[in-house]
Hints:
This protein is an all-alpha fold. The chain has 15 helices and two strands. It has a two-stranded antiparallel ribbon. Helix 1 packs antiparallel against helix 14 (298-327) and helix 12 runs antiparallel to helix 13. The longest helix has 30 residues, at 298-327.
Amino acid sequence: MPTQVGFINAVNSLVMIFATPFWGMMADKIRSIRKVFLFCICIAAVLWAVIPFSSQIAVGPLVLMYLIVPLGSFFRMPANSLLDAFVVQRSDLDKVAYGHVRLWGSISFAIMNISLSAILPLTGVEVSFYLYGVAFLPLLIIMWQMKSADGAVLGVGRRKALSFKQMGFGRLFKNYYFITYLVFAVFIHMPANTSMAFLPYLVASVGGDTAQLGLISGYKALLEIPMLLLMRPLRRKFPLPVAIAGAGVFYSIEALLYSRANSLIGILFIQTLHGLGGGLMIGAATNYVYSLAPPGLNSTAHTMNGAANAIAAIVGSLSGGFLIVAIGIRSFYLLAGAVIAFALFYFLLSLFIGTKILKKPIPLSNK
Protein backbone atom coordinates (compact mmCIF):
# COMPACT_ATOMS: atom_id res chain seq x y z
CA MET A 1 0.00 0.00 0.00
CA PRO A 2 1.27 3.52 -0.78
CA THR A 3 0.47 4.65 2.77
CA GLN A 4 2.64 1.86 4.25
CA VAL A 5 5.56 2.71 1.95
CA GLY A 6 5.17 6.35 2.91
CA PHE A 7 5.09 5.54 6.64
CA ILE A 8 8.26 3.38 6.49
CA ASN A 9 10.12 6.06 4.53
CA ALA A 10 8.93 8.69 7.00
CA VAL A 11 10.20 6.77 10.05
CA ASN A 12 13.66 6.35 8.51
CA SER A 13 13.69 10.02 7.53
CA LEU A 14 12.74 11.02 11.10
CA VAL A 15 15.81 9.18 12.35
CA MET A 16 17.92 10.92 9.71
CA ILE A 17 16.79 14.39 10.85
CA PHE A 18 18.49 13.90 14.21
CA ALA A 19 21.29 11.51 13.25
CA THR A 20 22.73 13.44 10.30
CA PRO A 21 23.49 16.79 11.99
CA PHE A 22 24.57 14.96 15.17
CA TRP A 23 27.31 13.04 13.37
CA GLY A 24 28.24 16.14 11.34
CA MET A 25 28.75 18.12 14.55
CA MET A 26 30.82 15.26 15.98
CA ALA A 27 33.04 15.29 12.87
CA ASP A 28 33.64 19.03 13.23
CA LYS A 29 34.16 18.66 16.98
CA ILE A 30 36.87 15.98 16.78
CA ARG A 31 38.26 17.43 13.52
CA SER A 32 37.88 14.21 11.54
CA ILE A 33 35.13 13.39 9.06
CA ARG A 34 37.09 10.26 8.24
CA LYS A 35 36.90 8.75 11.74
CA VAL A 36 33.19 9.48 12.15
CA PHE A 37 32.41 8.07 8.70
CA LEU A 38 34.36 4.86 9.40
CA PHE A 39 32.61 4.42 12.74
CA CYS A 40 29.13 4.95 11.32
CA ILE A 41 29.59 2.62 8.34
CA CYS A 42 31.11 -0.21 10.40
CA ILE A 43 28.24 -0.15 12.92
CA ALA A 44 25.64 0.18 10.13
CA ALA A 45 27.10 -2.78 8.22
CA VAL A 46 26.81 -5.04 11.27
CA LEU A 47 23.25 -3.94 12.06
CA TRP A 48 22.16 -4.21 8.42
CA ALA A 49 23.45 -7.79 8.23
CA VAL A 50 21.32 -8.68 11.27
CA ILE A 51 18.04 -7.46 9.74
CA PRO A 52 17.10 -10.70 7.88
CA PHE A 53 17.49 -12.68 11.13
CA SER A 54 15.77 -10.06 13.26
CA SER A 55 12.58 -10.38 11.21
CA GLN A 56 12.06 -13.79 12.85
CA ILE A 57 12.64 -12.65 16.45
CA ALA A 58 10.02 -11.03 18.66
CA VAL A 59 10.77 -8.70 21.57
CA GLY A 60 7.53 -8.52 23.48
CA PRO A 61 4.83 -7.34 21.06
CA LEU A 62 7.40 -6.03 18.53
CA VAL A 63 9.38 -7.85 15.87
CA LEU A 64 13.09 -7.10 16.50
CA MET A 65 13.50 -5.90 12.93
CA TYR A 66 11.40 -2.81 13.68
CA LEU A 67 13.99 -1.82 16.30
CA ILE A 68 17.07 -2.76 14.26
CA VAL A 69 16.06 -0.82 11.12
CA PRO A 70 15.82 2.64 12.76
CA LEU A 71 18.91 1.93 14.87
CA GLY A 72 20.82 0.95 11.73
CA SER A 73 19.52 4.05 9.98
CA PHE A 74 20.92 6.22 12.78
CA PHE A 75 24.40 5.18 11.66
CA ARG A 76 23.78 4.45 7.96
CA MET A 77 21.88 7.52 6.78
CA PRO A 78 24.43 10.21 7.77
CA ALA A 79 27.11 8.40 5.72
CA ASN A 80 26.20 10.04 2.40
CA SER A 81 26.32 13.57 3.81
CA LEU A 82 29.60 12.86 5.60
CA LEU A 83 31.12 11.39 2.46
CA ASP A 84 29.94 14.35 0.36
CA ALA A 85 31.47 16.74 2.88
CA PHE A 86 34.74 14.82 2.83
CA VAL A 87 34.96 14.59 -0.97
CA VAL A 88 34.09 18.23 -1.72
CA GLN A 89 36.54 19.51 0.89
CA ARG A 90 39.30 17.12 -0.17
CA SER A 91 38.71 18.06 -3.83
CA ASP A 92 39.11 21.71 -2.94
CA LEU A 93 42.27 20.99 -0.95
CA ASP A 94 43.82 18.95 -3.78
CA LYS A 95 42.57 21.33 -6.53
CA VAL A 96 40.57 18.56 -8.21
CA ALA A 97 37.16 19.10 -9.82
CA TYR A 98 34.52 17.74 -7.43
CA GLY A 99 32.32 16.55 -10.30
CA HIS A 100 35.14 14.43 -11.72
CA VAL A 101 35.43 12.63 -8.39
CA ARG A 102 31.72 12.40 -7.57
CA LEU A 103 30.82 10.87 -10.96
CA TRP A 104 32.41 7.60 -9.81
CA GLY A 105 29.71 7.43 -7.17
CA SER A 106 27.09 7.60 -9.91
CA ILE A 107 28.91 4.94 -11.91
CA SER A 108 29.13 2.55 -8.96
CA PHE A 109 25.49 3.24 -8.03
CA ALA A 110 24.43 2.37 -11.57
CA ILE A 111 26.51 -0.81 -11.59
CA MET A 112 25.11 -1.95 -8.23
CA ASN A 113 21.50 -1.25 -9.17
CA ILE A 114 21.73 -2.98 -12.53
CA SER A 115 23.59 -5.93 -11.00
CA LEU A 116 21.16 -6.32 -8.09
CA SER A 117 18.16 -6.18 -10.44
CA ALA A 118 19.60 -9.30 -12.08
CA ILE A 119 20.85 -11.05 -8.92
CA LEU A 120 18.08 -10.52 -6.35
CA PRO A 121 15.34 -12.39 -8.28
CA LEU A 122 17.61 -15.45 -8.09
CA THR A 123 18.96 -15.08 -4.55
CA GLY A 124 16.24 -13.23 -2.68
CA VAL A 125 16.27 -9.71 -1.31
CA GLU A 126 18.01 -10.80 1.91
CA VAL A 127 21.35 -10.95 0.08
CA SER A 128 21.36 -7.16 -0.36
CA PHE A 129 21.60 -6.73 3.43
CA TYR A 130 24.77 -8.83 3.56
CA LEU A 131 26.27 -7.14 0.50
CA TYR A 132 25.95 -3.70 2.11
CA GLY A 133 29.03 -4.07 4.29
CA VAL A 134 30.98 -6.03 1.66
CA ALA A 135 30.42 -3.35 -0.97
CA PHE A 136 31.81 -0.71 1.40
CA LEU A 137 35.06 -2.59 2.10
CA PRO A 138 37.21 -0.94 -0.64
CA LEU A 139 36.09 2.53 0.48
CA LEU A 140 36.71 1.71 4.14
CA ILE A 141 40.24 0.54 3.37
CA ILE A 142 41.00 3.72 1.41
CA MET A 143 39.52 5.97 4.11
CA TRP A 144 41.42 4.12 6.83
CA GLN A 145 44.70 4.88 5.06
CA MET A 146 43.95 8.60 4.58
CA LYS A 147 44.97 9.63 8.08
CA SER A 148 46.66 12.75 6.76
CA ALA A 149 43.20 14.09 5.86
CA ASP A 150 42.19 14.49 9.52
CA GLY A 151 41.92 18.12 10.54
CA ALA A 152 43.41 19.51 7.34
CA VAL A 153 40.37 18.52 5.27
CA LEU A 154 38.17 20.55 7.61
CA GLY A 155 40.18 23.64 6.80
CA VAL A 156 41.14 24.28 10.40
CA GLY A 157 44.47 22.51 10.80
CA ARG A 158 45.26 19.50 12.95
CA ARG A 159 44.34 20.75 16.39
CA LYS A 160 42.71 19.12 19.38
CA ALA A 161 38.96 18.64 19.63
CA LEU A 162 36.83 21.69 20.35
CA SER A 163 34.04 22.16 22.84
CA PHE A 164 30.59 22.79 21.38
CA LYS A 165 30.79 26.37 22.64
CA GLN A 166 34.05 26.96 20.80
CA MET A 167 32.56 25.68 17.53
CA GLY A 168 30.18 28.65 17.22
CA PHE A 169 27.10 27.08 15.67
CA GLY A 170 25.39 30.48 15.64
CA ARG A 171 27.46 31.40 12.57
CA LEU A 172 25.39 28.97 10.51
CA PHE A 173 22.02 30.19 11.73
CA LYS A 174 22.97 33.84 11.07
CA ASN A 175 23.90 33.03 7.46
CA TYR A 176 20.99 34.33 5.34
CA TYR A 177 21.84 32.35 2.20
CA PHE A 178 22.44 29.10 4.08
CA ILE A 179 19.12 29.24 5.94
CA THR A 180 17.12 30.25 2.86
CA TYR A 181 18.81 27.44 0.92
CA LEU A 182 17.79 24.90 3.59
CA VAL A 183 14.16 26.00 3.22
CA PHE A 184 14.49 25.64 -0.55
CA ALA A 185 16.01 22.17 -0.11
CA VAL A 186 12.95 21.05 1.87
CA PHE A 187 10.52 22.38 -0.74
CA ILE A 188 12.29 20.94 -3.79
CA HIS A 189 13.27 17.56 -2.35
CA MET A 190 9.84 16.95 -0.85
CA PRO A 191 8.29 16.24 -4.29
CA ALA A 192 11.49 15.35 -6.17
CA ASN A 193 12.59 12.52 -3.84
CA THR A 194 9.04 11.35 -3.16
CA SER A 195 8.33 11.06 -6.87
CA MET A 196 11.11 8.46 -7.02
CA ALA A 197 9.84 6.59 -3.97
CA PHE A 198 6.39 6.13 -5.52
CA LEU A 199 7.65 5.34 -9.02
CA PRO A 200 6.71 1.62 -8.65
CA TYR A 201 3.03 2.62 -8.61
CA LEU A 202 3.42 4.59 -11.83
CA VAL A 203 5.27 1.68 -13.45
CA ALA A 204 2.49 -0.69 -12.38
CA SER A 205 -0.17 1.70 -13.71
CA VAL A 206 1.28 1.45 -17.24
CA GLY A 207 1.59 -2.33 -17.06
CA GLY A 208 5.34 -2.35 -16.48
CA ASP A 209 7.35 -4.83 -14.40
CA THR A 210 8.42 -3.27 -11.09
CA ALA A 211 11.33 -5.75 -11.00
CA GLN A 212 12.96 -3.47 -13.59
CA LEU A 213 13.16 -0.53 -11.18
CA GLY A 214 16.79 -1.31 -10.43
CA LEU A 215 17.55 -0.98 -14.14
CA ILE A 216 15.69 2.35 -14.26
CA SER A 217 17.59 3.66 -11.22
CA GLY A 218 20.88 2.55 -12.76
CA TYR A 219 20.04 4.35 -16.00
CA LYS A 220 19.20 7.51 -14.04
CA ALA A 221 22.54 7.37 -12.23
CA LEU A 222 24.46 7.01 -15.50
CA LEU A 223 22.74 10.16 -16.81
CA GLU A 224 24.15 12.10 -13.84
CA ILE A 225 27.67 11.60 -15.19
CA PRO A 226 27.57 14.08 -18.14
CA MET A 227 26.48 16.93 -15.86
CA LEU A 228 29.10 16.07 -13.26
CA LEU A 229 31.75 16.11 -15.99
CA LEU A 230 30.48 19.49 -17.17
CA MET A 231 30.39 21.09 -13.71
CA ARG A 232 33.79 22.80 -13.99
CA PRO A 233 33.09 24.51 -17.35
CA LEU A 234 29.53 25.32 -16.21
CA ARG A 235 30.88 26.98 -13.04
CA ARG A 236 33.10 29.19 -15.19
CA LYS A 237 30.06 30.50 -17.07
CA PHE A 238 27.28 30.38 -14.49
CA PRO A 239 27.08 30.98 -10.71
CA LEU A 240 26.19 27.92 -8.64
CA PRO A 241 22.64 29.19 -7.88
CA VAL A 242 21.93 29.24 -11.65
CA ALA A 243 22.97 25.59 -11.93
CA ILE A 244 20.76 24.73 -8.94
CA ALA A 245 17.84 26.53 -10.60
CA GLY A 246 18.53 24.55 -13.78
CA ALA A 247 18.22 21.32 -11.80
CA GLY A 248 14.87 22.55 -10.49
CA VAL A 249 13.65 23.10 -14.06
CA PHE A 250 14.60 19.53 -14.99
CA TYR A 251 12.83 18.14 -11.90
CA SER A 252 9.65 20.12 -12.53
CA ILE A 253 9.36 19.07 -16.18
CA GLU A 254 10.10 15.47 -15.16
CA ALA A 255 7.23 15.35 -12.65
CA LEU A 256 4.80 16.98 -15.09
CA LEU A 257 5.72 14.46 -17.80
CA TYR A 258 5.18 11.56 -15.38
CA SER A 259 1.55 12.62 -15.12
CA ARG A 260 1.23 11.87 -18.86
CA ALA A 261 3.43 8.75 -19.09
CA ASN A 262 1.71 5.72 -20.62
CA SER A 263 4.51 3.16 -21.07
CA LEU A 264 7.63 1.84 -19.38
CA ILE A 265 9.72 3.20 -22.27
CA GLY A 266 8.17 6.61 -21.69
CA ILE A 267 9.06 6.47 -17.98
CA LEU A 268 12.62 5.49 -18.87
CA PHE A 269 12.84 8.46 -21.24
CA ILE A 270 11.56 10.83 -18.55
CA GLN A 271 14.18 9.44 -16.15
CA THR A 272 16.73 11.09 -18.42
CA LEU A 273 15.57 14.44 -17.05
CA HIS A 274 15.98 13.23 -13.46
CA GLY A 275 19.48 12.01 -14.23
CA LEU A 276 20.52 15.31 -15.80
CA GLY A 277 18.85 17.32 -13.04
CA GLY A 278 20.36 15.07 -10.38
CA GLY A 279 23.85 15.54 -11.80
CA LEU A 280 23.40 19.31 -11.74
CA MET A 281 21.98 19.30 -8.23
CA ILE A 282 24.69 17.02 -6.82
CA GLY A 283 27.53 19.02 -8.35
CA ALA A 284 26.12 22.50 -7.71
CA ALA A 285 24.31 22.12 -4.37
CA THR A 286 27.19 20.34 -2.64
CA ASN A 287 29.63 23.05 -3.70
CA TYR A 288 27.12 25.79 -2.83
CA VAL A 289 26.70 24.50 0.73
CA TYR A 290 30.48 24.22 1.02
CA SER A 291 30.92 27.84 -0.11
CA LEU A 292 28.36 29.04 2.45
CA ALA A 293 29.73 27.09 5.43
CA PRO A 294 31.84 29.05 7.94
CA PRO A 295 35.36 27.69 8.63
CA GLY A 296 35.28 24.69 10.93
CA LEU A 297 31.58 23.96 10.36
CA ASN A 298 31.73 22.35 6.93
CA SER A 299 30.59 18.92 8.09
CA THR A 300 27.79 20.40 10.18
CA ALA A 301 26.57 22.45 7.22
CA HIS A 302 26.52 19.45 4.88
CA THR A 303 24.76 17.24 7.39
CA MET A 304 22.21 19.96 8.18
CA ASN A 305 21.49 19.96 4.45
CA GLY A 306 21.03 16.20 4.73
CA ALA A 307 18.61 16.73 7.62
CA ALA A 308 16.63 19.20 5.49
CA ASN A 309 16.35 16.50 2.84
CA ALA A 310 15.10 14.10 5.53
CA ILE A 311 12.41 16.56 6.61
CA ALA A 312 11.38 16.79 2.97
CA ALA A 313 11.24 13.00 2.73
CA ILE A 314 9.02 12.73 5.83
CA VAL A 315 6.50 15.30 4.64
CA GLY A 316 6.62 13.99 1.09
CA SER A 317 6.33 10.32 2.03
CA LEU A 318 3.41 10.78 4.42
CA SER A 319 1.48 13.24 2.26
CA GLY A 320 2.38 11.45 -0.97
CA GLY A 321 1.01 8.12 0.20
CA PHE A 322 -2.34 9.65 1.13
CA LEU A 323 -2.48 11.81 -2.00
CA ILE A 324 -1.98 8.84 -4.30
CA VAL A 325 -4.86 7.04 -2.62
CA ALA A 326 -7.04 10.18 -2.73
CA ILE A 327 -6.33 11.64 -6.18
CA GLY A 328 -4.42 8.94 -8.07
CA ILE A 329 -0.82 8.55 -9.16
CA ARG A 330 -1.03 10.88 -12.19
CA SER A 331 -2.58 13.78 -10.32
CA PHE A 332 0.05 13.25 -7.63
CA TYR A 333 2.85 13.83 -10.16
CA LEU A 334 1.06 16.87 -11.58
CA LEU A 335 0.94 18.35 -8.08
CA ALA A 336 4.60 17.41 -7.50
CA GLY A 337 5.61 19.37 -10.59
CA ALA A 338 3.74 22.41 -9.33
CA VAL A 339 5.41 22.23 -5.89
CA ILE A 340 8.86 22.02 -7.51
CA ALA A 341 8.04 25.07 -9.63
CA PHE A 342 7.05 26.93 -6.45
CA ALA A 343 10.32 25.90 -4.77
CA LEU A 344 12.26 27.24 -7.74
CA PHE A 345 10.38 30.56 -7.57
CA TYR A 346 11.11 30.84 -3.83
CA PHE A 347 14.83 30.16 -4.37
CA LEU A 348 15.17 32.83 -7.05
CA LEU A 349 13.16 35.28 -4.95
CA SER A 350 15.41 34.67 -1.91
CA LEU A 351 18.48 35.43 -4.04
CA PHE A 352 16.89 38.62 -5.34
CA ILE A 353 15.98 39.78 -1.83
CA GLY A 354 19.42 38.93 -0.50
CA THR A 355 21.43 40.65 -3.21
CA LYS A 356 19.19 43.56 -4.20
CA ILE A 357 17.32 44.47 -1.01
CA LEU A 358 19.48 43.23 1.87
CA LYS A 359 22.68 43.98 -0.09
CA LYS A 360 24.30 40.70 1.00
CA PRO A 361 26.80 39.30 -1.52
CA ILE A 362 26.62 35.55 -2.09
CA PRO A 363 29.88 34.09 -0.67
CA LEU A 364 30.57 31.78 -3.62
CA SER A 365 33.80 29.82 -3.67
CA ASN A 366 35.92 30.23 -6.79
CA LYS A 367 38.34 27.46 -5.90
